[in-house]
Amino acid sequence: MEPAKPAGLGKEKEMDKDNYNYIDKDLPDPLIDGDLLENGEEEAGDVAEEAASPPQSWLQRWPAILAILCIISIVLAYSIRYITASSFKFLKESQDLAGEPLIQEVRQAVVEINNHTLGFSQQNTRGTGFNIDATGMIITNRHIVLGADVLVVKSQNQGIYYATEWLEHPVVDLAIIPLKLKSDDMPFLQIEQRLPFIGEKVYIIGNPLGFVDIAVSGLVRSYGTVAGTDGSRILVMKIESEIHPGSSGSPVIDQDGHVLAVIFAQIPAQADVPTYGLAIPIGEATLLLEKIGYSAGDGGTSGGADGSTDQQ
Question: Does residue 125 sit within a domain?
Answer without folding.
Answer: yes
